[in-house]
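Re: the pair you flagged

First of the two:
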Amino acid sequence: MKFTVEHDDNIVIFTLKEPRLDSSTAPDIKAELLILCQPTIAALIVDLSRIEYADSSGLSALLLAYRQLRDHKIPVILVGVRETVRNLFRISQMEWLFEFYPTTEAALQQLQAEGD
């Protein structure tokens, strides 16, 4: 699984670099998210702009991140989500768990505005 991890102060930006978020990639993503989702971060931004296909295994990886951070009231923000993938969130009734933004920059601007 190819991905990058960047830090903007205490905001983690996790960018998936492959077109699939499914059972073939979910185990690696879950392992990395367990490491990244610490109570010391302010937010987790997951860039899904390259994801063309997702299934329930892929969604479970993102749900893991949500569960790791929810007790600390740390948002999991999804950016660049294509409509076909967003529909999967709607169908599974998971859409309300996450914040959605068109780009990483838009999410960072909103987080900075909330911090002011």
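Second of the two:
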Amino acid sequence: MARVKSGPVRRARHKALVTRNQGYKGTRSKLFRRANETFLKAQWYAYRDRRNRKRDLRRLWITRINAASRLNGTTYSRLIAAMRVNEVVLNRKMLADLAVRDANAFAKVVQAAKAK
């Protein structure tokens, strides 16, 4: 049986990966081994950070809500507790959006939460 050599296939695979790494500095965009290491690491960071993004955005929303609620005479934790008691149902993303874009509407939400 004839022996199969991987020359053209390997070259194509290497070239495809090196092409994908254009824009990286130095050997990371030139040499296959360094390019492969960089690519695998980049894929791992992308996977990890897709989850971390959700965490970071929630922290940002909470910070914005807290800042806006302090302008309205309460704190974040008291506002969320009051909303729960008075059955005002708004998620943190929408609350933060109201706090940034429409301060009057946010103030009305705070008043509705403090109603009882």
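Residues 88 and 109 are 8 Å apart (CA to CA).

-B.
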